[in-house]
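Human: We require from you a protein record containing the residue sequence and its fold in token form, and nothing else.

Assistant:
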Amino acid sequence: MMCASVVLPGAVASPAHSGLGTNLSGIVDWNTEHPFVDVFRLSRSWISQKQGQPWGKGPALDLDEHGWVKRLGPDCFAETPILTGGHAPAGEYVCLYDGEGQVEFGSNSKVVSRSPGRIVVNIDGRKAGTFLSIRATAPENPVRNIRLLMPGSEKSYVSEPFSAVFLDRWRGFNTFRFMDWIDTNGSKQRDWSDRPRINDATWSAKGVPVEVMVDLCNRLKINPWFCLPHQASDDYVRQFAASVKRNLHPSLKVHIEYSNEVWNGIFAQHRYAEEQGKQLGLGPKERPWEGAAKFYARRSVEIFRIWEEVFGGHEHLVRVIAWQAAGGSYWTDNMLLAEPGTAKSCDALAIAPYISFMPGPDSKSLKTDDVVKWSLNQLLDRVETNALPECIGWMKTQKAVADKYGLKLVCYEAGQHLVGVGGGENNEDLTKLLIAANHDSRMGGIYTKYLDAWRDLGGDLICIFSSVATSSKWGSWGLLEGADETSSPKFDAVMQWNRQNSH
């Protein structure tokens, strides 16, 4: 059976009156949010295998334009892991496919029945998933269009592609930021022909098609926030905008952002912006990062203008310029918004004022060896009395910049940022302590104070990072760990705040 819908206490806020958004978790096989009833949408790209060879060392697969296997060599097969993050329904999944061949499942599953193009398989989705493999395929009619449907969804998956649990959870939020659904960081998409399609074998390779994101927003009357790939051509931007204009409900507003964290040197989009800045002679040669900032501002304005042309103005758009919250006002005031025409072409300045607590072996104030000796209450005291006021200070500084230019201040990402860095992430005791802090009841109170401070400073939309994801040494970003959960201190605090602060 499908999981029961999430029932939240109290009235659900109207999306239009909410000031909260969320970043939806990425489309990967270990995703635990399970937004689609067709769980194959989150499968990994095909892994080539050959009998007698090491795992994953089969010959290059012959794939069609959508990633379906056209043929297999002797003693070869293709497989993909599914539901590896767990937290999914347990029961009878239905696998539908077109073509002729042999489809098999791995451990943690048991085939109940099979007929041409349809397999019923019992999977304990609460555990660590299984493998789906193509063991044989007819070259003249290959196996393709595989759908693996959650229990109870075979008759409704076409008209109801989203999990009811997923939809119910986010009713009443204002905005979905689709940064991870678009696979923004390091995107290789340039031309409109590079975009993800509805009939792609998986959406984990290129991201979710724009039509699907728009459909989701229409169903919940939630505003979309799109992060356009950093290499996207003008035609790509125009076609993307035209698709949104055609299909999005006219009552909704579209948040537009050029890429994601172009300021952040760990991302390919920053390096791209540096190179573009050099070619255009923007900024001093000895400080290429300044050229990157100037290029980001320039390209953002170009993208905004394309959307304005498509939409016939900017009434239904929120044009977002985003930068780092920390570091004072130098970058947002003197580098981005001071660029000619930038401020007048924007509607909002976006920041990510995380509650930052990042121990590392070489940290001056948060050495890993010291922090692991703290009690849970000591750690939470430090977060509440040091990290929280620090990020509120960043909010105040950037609010003054936004006010100076007549812009709204919004958060593209928000929430706690408790994670080991510089090798600290490899300390198991530290990881356990940080995860425990995220699960502690005090964290709910910290989130409430954080959101209250944002409201009291006059902040506009604030997008939590992130929706649902399991905790690990890389962080505890999700408000919940999995789709089968309905409560946590962070989640409860955010939901209560949204109900009490809708306007």
Remarks:
- The two ends are 38 Å apart (CA to CA).
- Residues 1-10 have pLDDT under 50 and may be disordered.
- DSSP finds eleven helices and 20 strands in the chain.
- The chain has two domains: 15-28+162-501, 40-149.
